[in-house]
Specification:
alpha+beta, Ribosomal Protein S5, domain 2, 4-stranded mixed β-sheet, two-stranded antiparallel ribbon, 6 strands
Length: 294
Amino acid sequence: MWMSMTGFGRGDHHGGEVSVTAEVRSVNHRFLDIHVRCPAKFTSWEMRVRSLVRETLKRGKVDVFLGVREWGKGGTTVRVNHGLLSSFLAEAKRVREEYSLAMDLSFRDLIEIPDLFVFAPEGNDPAEEHWTLAEGAVRSALAMLAGSRREEGKRLRAVIERSVRTLATLTEEMTALSGENKEHARARLLERIEALSGEAGFDPVRLQQEAAILIDRLDISEECDRLRSHLAGMEGLLKDEGEAVGKRFDFLVQEAFREMNTASSKSAHAGVSERVVTAKTELEKIREQIQNVE
């Protein structure tokens, strides 16, 4: 399945006096990197949200934002931390008596004591009570995200497919020129041999043998064959509707670069060198695009 790693999705689910909103954003990443942000009293949702994301996505940096809106009853009670209050009053009394201080405590003094008042949800745990709404919102957001990633994936596949076709044409042209490449190399070596033939100790037979070996080393037909193989692999992945293809395609691009570099270093033909430069430009375009494919 060709899917981009860039996308956005949003989902809303309502129930009674509660509304849960989920927003999911994703960008390219080597692996699946999930970040979940939700209100403090709903942090227990995080692991379950991560599991939902893993069911849908394979790669990408994914940010999930959850918002909860409650109206009507607040659903929260305020309780006094009696243990803390008793300890504070006892210690205040001891200090006053020990140092003969006149201290009159007011309610204003008490409310400034950290953690003296505890805010707690009323009734059942709201995270558990509203999880069904949160799950529905996240699934809706992920469905929208997956749809946008598929659409972008189709566009990327079309762009990459054009580049692969161009590479196939260039490879065939390089193959056709490979014979001329050897002849050019042979002609240049023969010119050099003639220039050296008048020198003392010249062995024409040995030199011809060495020249033949060197010319064979300049043959790029094997590189062209391997390029055809890599391009066939790319064409197969372009038709693949299965698992994520991005990493496999990136590997083939690296291997094609390797063959192009070898052919370039061997080439003695201006036409071959020109096509290698053009082909490497197309490979660079593919490499940039494939980084955003799942």
